[in-house]
Amino acid sequence: MKRGEEMKDRRNQISFDKLLEEIKIIIKSDKKRDEKLEEICKLLKEKILYYNWVGLYLVNPSKDRELILGPFIGEPTEHIRIPSGRGVCGRAAEEGKTIIVQDVSMEENYLACSLKVKAEIVVPIFKNSKLIGEIDIDSHYPSPFREGDKSFLEELSKLIANIL
């Protein structure tokens, strides 16, 4: 099976609506906040096979223009703190909008986490119109993210905002 066909096949197996329902159950559970967030990250990585690193960055409460790595699933990263404007996460924070990079090798402002990473999507999380965090997804596949991923993750960001 060619890589393009493999990606199409993986996408066809995903029901974003079903995943959102599973995530709502996690959010309503009695678990602690970080346990819920880690469980959500794990679920995304397991269910969406081209989501190879799934993590959350939270705005530093004592330094507004800095993101701090929160719960994540995937290879460890050295990017524990990211200033606003640096890398795809910093740019999404600065611009306040979802950023999709289908080929990280073409991104001038990319903060490399792993040589395996080919693409990244970052979705800001807002509460009362204020940035409070981000969902960050890395993929080992080039050009994997579609409008469905964007819509799904933007809806997820609203759910996560309720527990941050």
**What's the story with the biggest beta sheet?**
6 strands, antiparallel
Oligomer: single chain
Principal-axes shape call? globular
Count every helix, treating DSSP H or I runs of 4 or more residues as helices: 5
Counting DSSP E segments of at least 2 residues, the number of strands comes to 6
How many angstroms does the end-to-end distance come to?
Answer: 42 Å
Structure overview:
This protein has 164 residues and is of the alpha+beta class. It has a single domain (3-161), classed as Beta-Lactamase, CATH 3.30.450. It is built from five helices and six strands; from the N terminus they run H-H-H-E-E-E-H-E-E-E-H. A six-stranded antiparallel β-sheet has the order 3-2-1-6-5-4, sandwiched between helices. Strand 1 (53-59) and strand 2 (66-73) form a beta hairpin. The protein is globular, with a radius of gyration of 15 Å.
Map the helices and strands.
Blueprint: H1 3-12, H2 16-28, H3 33-47, E1 53-59, E2 66-73, E3 81-83, H4 87-95, E4 99-101, E5 119-127, E6 130-139, H5 147-161
Antiparallel strand pairs: 1-2, 1-6, 2-3, 4-5, 5-6
Keywords for this entry:
164 residues, Beta-Lactamase, 6-stranded antiparallel β-sheet, 5 helices
In short:
The protein has helices at 3-12, 16-28, 33-47, 87-95, 147-161; strands spanning 53-59, 66-73, 81-83, 99-101, 119-127, 130-139. It has 164 residues and is of the alpha+beta class.
